[in-house]
Amino acid sequence: MSHQVISLKYRPQRFEDVIGQEHITITLKNAIEKNRLGHAYIFSGPRGTGKTTTARLLAKVVNCENPKNGNPCNECSTCKEITQGRSMDVLEIDGASNRGIDSIRDLREQVKYPPTHGKYKVYIIDEFHQITKDAFNALLKTLEEPPKHILFIFATTELHKVLPTILSRCQRLEFKRIPLLQVMELLRNIAKQEGIAIDDDSLLLIAKKGDGSIRDSESILEQVIAFSNNEISYESILNILGVIREEVFFAMFNALVDGKADKALKLIDNMLMQGYDLAEFVSVFSGFLRDLYMVKAHGSADILNTTENLKKEYAELAETQDTHTLIRMLSIVNDEMTKISRSSNTKILVETLFIKLSNLQDLRQLDDLIGQLKRTSSAIDPVAAVPVSNVTPIVKNAKIVKEPAVKTYSSPILNGNLKESAATPQKEEIPIKEVVSQANDLPEPDSTDDIQSVGLEEIKDKWQSVIECIQPQKPAVASLLCNVGITNVQNGALILAVEDEYSHNTIKRNEKIICHCMEKVLKIKLMLRIEQNKVPDKQRVIKKQEIDDAAKQIIQNFEGELL
Questions:
Q1: What CA–CA distance (Å, rounded) separates 113 from 111?
Q2: What is the mean pLDDT of residues 197-203?
Q3: Which of 7, 88, 278, 389 is the most exposed place for a label (fewest CB within 10 A)?
């Protein structure tokens, strides 16, 4: 007996054998049992998901002589004829080669004749979307009022190309991609029946290459069996399919986060020498970054459909990575993918992309630039910026005060692009004792036990220093602390007010590092208490509008863009 390929040999013969499409098989079985079968169905969905197989099962069960629980018996002469493809009552038509109006006219003439043996005459049209518009229109009347003995089943992978007038006359059933684990289980059962030894890593590789298609996965398994005989190894699949190893993506990612562009370029050269498609590598690497981000965001690798070994590797790598870095890398890769797929200089674009990713730490974040601008702009403050030698003492109302000299200032971070700032206005009189204390930078008290040694105003004055302490480690947290309100110091706790839940949760998660920086700057131990309330301007240490203006200045003067 001649060899029969796996996709035909193990084609489902009952509705229960169609995996991953339970919502469709249950609907059809119930319609048959309740005698509520439609006259026309459209099966749509990705290739290899069971559309034609389900159509044949439906054709068999409506004509079966002894149906059982909504399934064909597969033993009567009608079932055998349909299974072998020689039934006169079930006609399979290729829509790609019978797409013209003449073919549809012939079909309209044929439907008038009743079936020869069974109850229904079934027309299964594959690639239904390829039929021309005129042919669609010629089919409308027949679809709307077909003979009672006719059942139409249309299969298509591109439902949007079918005319709405056709869709309105049919019942639509959407086929889904088959989940990875279900494909692996099916392949494992087939290999067992074929007497083939195969491990989970190899099954995962085949299922991923199949991309949710049962037929594609079975065809790959057939090819691998022919190469490997009775034992399939992971290495043999890699060689046959040209699939890039998972460890290559881990090695590439580690090279990028370590800033080793030379190592990344060497990996690219190795893939070229082995014949891999660089555009496909970038596409798969994008999926790798997505999986890594999902593990980081969910805090668990169980969200991935992969083997336990790979889940462990993803979890260990994600634990050491920063969420913002993953988002930036994923965004940059996805932006470049379209250019790479259309370019004739794929190698140059891919190398440029990975050089850019390896130098990602050198790209300044907006939070960093805002902090730098704020620190530089703080020199405009008369008390902080003007040295004692430039302050002239005056006597007024029998109190000795100092009046700061009028001075102009231009921020160096703006590179001279902005006009020179206006003359600094004269501030209210400040006792000379306070000015001299600040000018001479007297040391802070060493005690960390006396809560009363620090007041609310002093905390507000030094809050910018607290933010600068946090900035190198947690720039996003430092940015949020610019918008908080400092409301009170009570029972050894600093009470902060924030306006949104995100800020509340983020600051709460980073409470330890904030308290550490407060102790370092204020020389006192304080706890944090965070309240979610409206923050009045009088409580806000740094006006929100100032941050927005700073961001606009940076983008304008550096000709930058937000990533």
A1: 5
A2: 87
A3: 389
